[in-house]
Design goal:
Strand content: 25-35%
Helix content: 25-40%
Order of helices and strands: EHEEHEHEHEHEHEEEEEEEEEHHE
Strand order of the largest sheet: 16-13-12-11-7-10-9-8-17
Distance between the termini: 47 Å
CATH topology of the largest domain: Dihydrodipicolinate Reductase, domain 2
CATH architecture of the largest domain: 2-Layer Sandwich
Structural class: alpha/beta
Number of strands: 17
């Protein structure tokens, strides 16, 4: 019986937060058999589930002939070496994001993987987030006509990062942590659009070494201006609006859409009729008379329900299984991840220079 007729035999390097998440999911997911887990800190292996091997070293896991696929969930600065080691051992590889610390690192990884002839992809499970899939469905259905603006944001209140994420040398900071997801979502939503220019502000507001705030503006050749903003100390007293969660806004020439929260709430919003360039009635506001920014008349604003989606993070591994058996393509392709990594380098350069960067 060949490997395509059996469970995929997978092992995890790194048993931190994501390692635990992968362990929980793969232990119950049909089509997979979790062989074992390694971590350079033995204490991290103390709660590994019964029946799962505990490897005293990453090398022992990589060289175990029972393992087909190595899932790398170690610190970001370890990805390059671990991918290369696994590839040379003939293992297929799933790597946590960010795939590498730089484009140069990734190019070296690609060279080794290609020479060894193994499968190589990245765990971008947030392509299946319900909030993202909802706004993507609005875009794909052209529900708003010609889209001109798109905003993707995430806000938090604690500010401080944790564990190795506070160290630059370990690959810490929010651009590597969440930024790679937020950017990947934008680019995957518009795969045919090229980024003409990038302007960014990246700051460490209350952390000493690493970024905890960024705002990125991307001008696409399809006419869309996309904004990505993340703040870990970005405060408002409206938790009822899911402030400390995810937010999307998309504007087009026939309406707008907003999506709030990881499990989203929101609406498609339109006007009951198009305004015309004729003299209108002025409205008095606290700021003075206006024809554009006063409260709308009753019946002017109308809403529609957002499209329903049904996606979950397990869908990433369902796709991987099918792709592994040759039934479909791997959802996450290495050139896509290279483009995101190159974009992050342009973001850092823009933030350093205070200038827009011509990108594609």
């Amino acid at each position: 019986m060949d490997k395509f007729m059996e469970d995929i035999r997978i092992a995890i390097i790194g048993h931190g937060f994501m390692g635990h998440e992968h362990e929980a999911m793969l232990s119950k997911l049909e089509g997979y058999r979790l062989i074992g887990i390694s971590d350079i800190d033995p204490k991290q292996l103390e709660d590994v589930k019964e029946g799962v091997k505990r490897y005293p070293s990453n090398e022992e896991l990589i060289n175990d002939p029972e393992v087909q696929v190595v899932l790398i969930a170690a610190n970001n600065n370890q990805h390059h070496d671990l991918v290369c080691q696994a590839a040379r051992a003939g293992k297929d590889i799933i790597c946590e994001k960010p795939i590498a610390m730089s484009v140069d690192e990734l190019d070296d990884m690609i060279k080794v993987v290609d020479e060894c002839g193994v499968n190589f992809t990245v765990h971008h499970q947030r392509r299946f987030d319900p909030d993202f899939r909802t706004i993507k469905e609005v875009f794909d259905q052209k529900s708003l006509g010609e889209v001109y603006t798109l905003k993707n944001s995430l806000y938090g209140f604690n500010g401080n990062m944790h564990d190795w994420h506070i160290y630059i040398k370990e690959g810490g900071g929010m651009l590597f942590d969440w930024g790679v997801h937020l950017l990947d979502q934008i680019l995957w939503m518009m795969p045919g659009a090229k980024i003409k220019s990038v302007f960014a502000d990246v700051r460490n507001v209350i952390n000493y070494e690493v970024d905890d705030y960024f705002k990125v503006l991307m001008k696409f050749d399809n006419g869309i201006m996309a904004e990505v903003e993340l703040g870990t100390y970005y405060l408002a007293d409206k938790p009822q609006d899911k402030w400390f969660e995810r937010h999307w806004f998309m504007g087009g020439n026939t309406g707008s859409a907003y999506v709030d929260g990881f499990y989203p709430e929101g609406k498609i919003v339109r006007t009951s009729h198009f305004l015309t360039n004729v003299r209108g009635t002025r409205t008095m506001t606290a700021a003075g008379p206006t024809r554009s920014f006063g409260p709308p008349a009753d019946g002017t604003i109308v809403t529609e329900e957002l499209p329903k989606v049904n996606t979950k993070h397990e869908d990433y591994f369902i796709n991987y299984r099918k792709a592994y058996e040759g039934q479909e393509e791997f959802l996450v392709k290495i050139p896509e991840t290279r483009r995101v990594l190159a974009l992050m380098e342009a973001i850092r350069e823009s933030a350093r220079t205070g200038m827009a960067i011509q990108f594609e």
